[in-house]
Amino acid sequence: MSAHDPKMHNLLRYLGALVAFDTRNGVGEELPCAEYLAGVLKSHNPDALKVGTVKRSRARADGAYVLAQWGRPRVVINVHLDTVPSGKGWSTDPLTLTQKGEAVYGLGAADIKGAIACVLACLDAASPKDVAVLFSGDEEQGSEVMAQIIARGDMSDAPMAIICEPTGALPGLRHRGFVSYAQKYSGPGGHSSGADNIAAPVLMGSRVGAALGDYGKAHKDTGPAGFKGLCMNVGSLRSDGSHNVIPTQAELRMSMRPAPGDDMQMRARQIREIMTNTAPAAELMQLSCHSAFACDDISAFADILGSLAGKGIDLPYWTEAAMLSEAGKNCIVFGPGHITVAHAPDEFVTFEQLNAALPVYARALSGEFE
After folding, report:
1. In this predicted structure, what is the pLDDT of residue 58?
2. Could you give the 3-state DSSP secondary structure of residue 364?
3. E-assigned strand segments in the chain
4. pTM of the predicted structure, to 2 decimals
5. Residue 367: left (phi > 0), alpha (psi -120 to 50), or beta?
6. Which strands form 233-239's sheet, in the order they lie side by side?
7. Are 192 and 216 in contact (CB under 8 A)?
8. Are 169 and 334 a contacting pair, CB within 8 Å?
9. Which of 117, 187, 243, 274 is deepest in the core (most CB within 10 A)?
10. 326: alpha, beta or left, given left = phi > 0 and alpha = psi -120 to 50?
11. Containing H/E element for 242?
């Protein structure tokens, strides 16, 4: 299917409109995009339609979501509408969809506005039945929108969910959890000639980082096949000092990704103990704590996935499937595009990937599956 095919042309029209909305997490706005999507969904006569907003702690503007339902939904298709910031290195305008050969480039093309465009194109092609569609924000930073959707009871009652992420158009069945902390260290500061007798915030942070590294090394063989290790990462240690200045403050940020089946709360507790025992006077803040994910029953998606049902893959990244699974839904992760180009300059998705995803979404929206 080329860009000149009517269905692909329609899909690309939607994707161009979606990429043009600045939904960069932290700096953009999600509500205008959600309202646009609500207008498109309304044209397909849903039995229920709701647009909601969520006050977020780490962003300039409120988060947003839109939920549409037809009949008695058996599956909910969820796609996040936010993107990461565009960063440097783009050869084209990141908020303008640009075609190059058999691919289109733009911020969110792969992660994951391409899936939204696929869903909208499928809705135009056939009437939906017994399905829900949820477009939600804030996935790229804090997942505060999804947490509130679940807490408010605004999530569909559908027992199954397809969470859309760039999986290469293959069903994702498992992924790691994610926990992260920040720890702040302080002291009076001063000239480096007094370093022997003045509190050293960076040195304290370094000791914490080394202790975390030892913990990660000791567990490199922990976990099932495909998920060995804890992915311990000391991501940053920043201060207001210099080579000849003792800093007054420093901050360490770390993350860890336990495997499916691991005890997430135990791991988080052990990390807190390492950090507080090494630096008792420091301020410790939990930035996130998200469970791992494993699909409950892939056979329930057999008719939706068709020939892809036996091609499940493990994912190297966290998704909100973990949250929906904890809320009681049988989930898979599925979408066009590849994670290798997501969050990178000149993000793109190919026509081949969009075409591979279309029939899966079409079957889920049709309600014609066992």
Report:
1. 82
2. helix
3. 48-54, 63-70, 75-80, 98-100, 103-105, 131-136, 160-164, 172-175, 178-186, 190-191, 233-239, 245-246, 249-256, 283-290, 293-294, 313-315, 330-333, 348-350
4. 0.90
5. left
6. 233-239, 249-256, 178-186, 283-290
7. no
8. yes
9. 117
10. alpha
11. none
CB 24 within 8 A of CB 80: no
Which residue out of 29, 30, 138, 139 is catalytically annotated? 139
Q: Give CA–CA dist 210/36, Å, rounded.
A: 49
* Selected catalytic residue, list 29, 30, 82, 320: 82
DSSP 297: -
Six-digit token string for 94: 């990141």
Query: For the purposes of burial, counting CB atoms within 10 Å of the CB of 100, is it exposed (0-12), middle (13-18) or buried (19 or more)?
Result: exposed
pLDDT digits (tens, 9 = 90+) for 193-244: 999 999 999 999 999 999 999 999 999 999 999 999 999 999 999 999 999 9
Report helix angle 6-20 to 351-366, nearest 10.
100
Hey, what amino acid is at 310?
Answer: G
**pLDDT given at position 4:** 62
pLDDT in tens, 248-283: 999 999 999 999 999 999 999 999 999 999 999 999
Task: Provide the residue type at 359 as one letter.
Answer: P
Is 370 one of the annotated active-site residues of the chain?
A: no
For residue 342, name the pLDDT band (cuts at 50, 70, 90): very high
Question: 210 is written with which tokens?
Answer: 């080394």
* Tens digit of each residue's pLDDT (9 = 90 or more) over 125-157: 999 999 999 999 999 988 999 999 999 999 999
Please confirm, yes or no, whether 154 is among the known catalytic residues. Answer: no
